[in-house]
Design a protein that fits this description.
- The chain crosses the membrane at residues 12-32, 44-65, 94-115, 127-149, 156-175, 195-218.
- Residues 339-358 are annotated as: Disordered.
- This protein has helices at residues 2-12, 15-32, 41-50, 52-67, 69-72, 76-80, 87-119, 133-151, 157-170, 198-219, 227-238, 249-252, 273-287, 330-339, 360-372, 378-381, 385-400, 404-409; strands spanning 194-195, 246-247, 254-256, 262-266, 296-299, 312-315.
- It is mainly α.
- The chain has three domains: 2-247, no CATH class; 253-339; 360-409, no CATH class.
- The strands form two sheets. It has a four-stranded mixed β-sheet with strand order 3-4-5-6. Strands 1-2 form a two-stranded antiparallel sheet.
- Helix 13 (273-287) links the parallel strand 4 and strand 5 (296-299).
- Helix 2 runs parallel beside helix 7 (87-119), helix 8 packs parallel to helix 10 (198-219) and helix 15 crosses helix 17 (385-400).
- The longest helix is centred in the first third of the chain and has 33 residues, at 87-119.
- The protein is elongated, with a radius of gyration of 28 Å.
Length: 413
């Protein structure tokens, strides 16, 4: 009986609309930020969890629209004459929109997996950990939608409730020090090179499953039956797993070019190494042989607090990967590389204006960076070639040492 009703709902109910909405929604968020997942299995799993920020409101809206359908069509009394339990249509409607929404995710997810498989060079242990919580979280969202739709069956209930859930899911991310911030799909705690223990994923899957049960039981007015799963969900919310996440050393292991000067990226970004090398090698070769200048360029994710490597220049690959696996912003990549050649996080002098015209030390650094870009000022080009290179080495050494007095003394004018 329930199976036949479910098949009818899947063919003629809101399931098809839910599938279309979730397919479009997932495609949009995947295309909007490919750097989060392209070429990284762990990144794809983590980003799919982040996509719950958009997908959960869609599932909730689908559940609310489905649950309010009979009242909007004014067929509640007619359906009440049918000899079947009242919870049958509610449960089958929820199952239909949930299955429809999950089926809508299949095609864009398969395409994303194929694009990742083409480029990925590392998976890592437990990279798939966040995945099981995704369908359970979406089922809980649609169950909440059913509960809201049965109580408020208006035409504007679904979009208003979806928007409210979107805001609610994003809020914990604004309180990163809260122990409940990890409940938000938008939290920065999840990264492709961070391993969360299996106990955390099990805890969150159980908590979301209990919430789904509570919402469905409340939707069918089984108040007392909802007490037990509600109490268990509350207990889990208070008793967060004690295990802490840890960085995956395999993901952050360096992969470098064979020829010197070396260009190194983390293993999860190995597919970007040819493009990164093409962008940064000219700058490294320009510095070759100058005392005190870097002899290698290394991705910033491999940098550790307090780890000083005088022969290393750092660069960032944040938001750099494109859908095809290339570097998105070559100019920004060069900028992060050049900025690491000098000032290494030095505090600005209290009397500094930051104006090269008034501040000799800033003027000195600016001249060095213009030299790196191949457009040195006339005062620098007036020096013999070897003198230029010696001057560049002294400038970068003083800048890294935060020696503003030495930089002022090196001013060319």
């Amino acid at each position: 009986m329930i199976g036949r009703i479910l098949r009818i709902e899947l063919r003629h109910g809101s399931a098809a609309l839910a599938a279309l909405a979730t397919a479009v929604g997932l495609t949009w968020v995947l295309v909007a930020n490919p750097a989060q997942w392209v070429g990284q299995w762990g990144g794809l799993a983590v980003y799919l969890r982040m996509c719950l920020l958009v997908l959960c409101p869609l599932f909730l809206a689908a559940g609310a629209w489905q649950a309010g359908r009979d009242r909007r069509a004014r067929t509640v009394e007619l359906l009440g004459t049918v000899p079947r339990p009242a919870w049958h249509p509610m449960l089958t409607g929820w199952a239909a929109v949930t299955l429809g929404g999950l089926c809508g995710l299949a095609l864009p997810l398969l395409v994303a997996a194929a694009m990742t498989a083409r480029l990925a060079t590392y998976a890592g242990p437990g990279w798939w950990g966040p995945l099981p919580t995704v369908p359970i979280g979406l089922a809980a969202a649609s169950a909440l939608g059913v509960l809201i739709g049965r109580r408020f069956p208006g035409r504007f209930t679904a979009p208003v409730a979806g928007l409210a859930l979107y805001v609610g899911l994003a809020l914990p991310a604004y309180f990163p020090d809260s122990r409940w911030a990890v409940l938000s799909p938008a939290t920065d705690e999840f990264r492709s090179y961070v391993l969360w223990p299996a106990s955390f994923h099990t805890w969150q899957a159980a908590w979301l499953g209990l919430l789904a049960a509570v919402f469905l039981l409340l939707a069918t007015r089984r108040w007392w039956a909802a007490v037990v799963p509600a109490a268990l969900a509350g207990t889990l919310l208070v008793a967060l797993p004690p295990d802490e996440p840890a960085e995956d050393p395999g993901a952050l292991a360096l992969v470098c070019t064979e020829r010197a000067p070396r260009v190194c990226v983390t293993r999860i970004n190995e597919f970007l190494l040819p493009d990164v090398d093409a962008v940064l090698r000219p700058g490294l070769e320009r510095l070759a042989g100058i005392p005190g200048t870097p002899v290698e360029a290394v991705e910033e994710n491999a940098r550790r607090p307090g780890g000083h490597r005088p022969g290393t220049a750092w660069f960032s690959l944040l938001d750099q990967a494109t859908l095809t696996g290339g570097v998105a912003r070559r100019d920004w990549l060069e900028t992060t590389f050049r900025s690491s050649l000098g000032d290494d996080g030095c505090p600005p002098p209290p009397d500094s204006t930051g104006d090269p015209v008034e501040d000799a030390s800033w003027r000195t650094e600016l001249a060095a960076f213009l030299w790196m870009e191949g457009d040195p000022p006339p005062e620098l080009t007036a020096l013999p070639g070897q003198r230029q290179r010696e001057w560049i080495g002294r400038v970068f050494a003083a800048s890294r040492a935060c020696d503003r007095a030495e930089l002022a003394r090196l001013a060319l004018s």
